[in-house]
Known about the structure:
Blueprint: E1 21-23, H1 46-52, H2 55-61, E2 67-69, H3 72-81, E3 87-89, H4 91-97, E4 102-107, H5 118-130, E5 135-140, H6 144-156, E6 159-165, H7 166-171, H8 173-181, E7 185-189, H9 195-203, H10 211-223, E8 228-230, H11 237-243, H12 245-256, E9 264-268, H13 273-287, E10 294-300, H14 305-308, E11 310-315, E12 324-329, H15 351-358, E13 362-367, H16 369-383, H17 389-408, E14 413-418, H18 426-433
Parallel strand pairs: 4-14, 5-6, 5-8, 6-7, 9-10, 9-14, 10-13
Antiparallel strand pairs: 1-2, 3-4, 11-12
Helix pairs in contact: 3-5, 4-16, 5-6, 5-11, 6-8, 9-10, 11-13, 12-13, 16-17
The chain binds pyridoxal-5'-phosphate (PLP).
Amino acid sequence: MDLGVRPPIRxxxxxxxxxxxxxxxxxDLPKPLPPPRLPDGxxxxxxxxxxxxxxxxxxxxxxxxxxxxxxxxxxxxxxRLGRPTPLIRAVGxxxxxxxxxxxxxxxxxxxxTGSHKINTAVAQIYYNKAEGIERVSTETGAGQWGSALAxxxxxxxxxxxxxxxRSSYNQKPYRRVLMELYGAEVIPSPSTxxxxxxxxxxxxxDSPGSLGIAISEAIEDVLSDERARYSLGSVLNHxxxxxxxxxxxxxxxxEEIGExxxxxxxxxxxxxxxxxxxxYPFVHDKLKGRSKTRFIAVEPKACPSLTRxxxxxxxxxxxxxxxxxxxxxxxxxxxVPPIHAGGLRYHGDAPTLCLLVDEKVIDAVxxxxxxxxxAGRIFAMSEGIVPAPESAHAVxxxxxxxxxxxRRGEKVVILFNLSxxxxxxxxxxxxxxxxxxxxxxxxxxxxxxxxxxxx
Length: 455
Ligand SMILES: *Cc1c(COP(=O)(O)O)cnc(C)c1O
């Protein structure tokens, strides 16, 4: 009988592990964050943001406070919905790879809509409700963000309208059903509800839609209804702030099982919110010179903003309606190939994440989707969980790091974010199993059409 002491393989999920404060990285950045700008170079007035978002979220967007209190009601709902989420050692994956690395993952897929996005949806709807807003409008691609916002709206009694990219609306009926079950109004975009949508349909009655068109429709919808506000599921500072519950919990959970600081922290990046949510509380320690952790952001080769893009000012949406943000971008007119990881098909990334990549605090890697789905299959067979195609990007990077550790005989500690499960994404896995998945090389990256802003 082996009486040797083994480290625990799963941290506890005590309620008190859910933080009472979010961590705001803005005051700790190595440089001030370049502000949003208008095409003429000026800084947009605060009123412009207040027309789109509740005031408290506009405050959070530019706050210099390191810790921001999580409202009691928000924290309570997060606990009811399943926080703290599990932190699990991937022993099965370690054995499969034969690696001396210790691999841990934070699993956000246990939350009711299957991903981390509910963490910010609850907070955003709470502030809208508190400021008397009756309705929130948003866009969704594959439906992860739309279903999270729909659930939060149901919990607080705030109406939610979701403009869903028409091709997904037709191809992914189950996400739509989920949103409607939560009481949200789901409208295929382009729609006849907005002037912009009608203009698109006039030119192209069979338009499959795009995230950019859907964003433009949601914004136009909000601007025509004084009691409505807009809601975004990633990229903005306040969204990343709300996601730091992930990393704050993980820190305490790692401590609890006696694990030192991770050597690597890994996450996939669409707009950057799940990656930042897990990593920023640890990036804080690195910026203070207290840790040597390496941070790895993982993106698709088909949409390689961090690895092939340029750090410059670009619009947040495809139509060019929003202010410009300084970010790594492949250009808002970039035609993102139809990869299955819909949540990673965004032309830019969160401005704080881009600054940290530019400052070499965070590294980025990119993969093709076939190798990503292969990693997803390995994870499903060794750990039991089918990763969302987005999350499988992180799994692929973790496998590569763990195999490198094996070659070098190094007992490194890896922590990664399993941002969601893939049980509503089985079509992609089906194509993978049938050998029908296609890999896409990046399209030509042309940024010549962007306004030239001096910095
Ligand atoms: C939306 C989504 C992502 C990408 O968005 P981020 O803001 O970069 O986190 C990643 N994983 C899952 C499961 C998602 O639903």
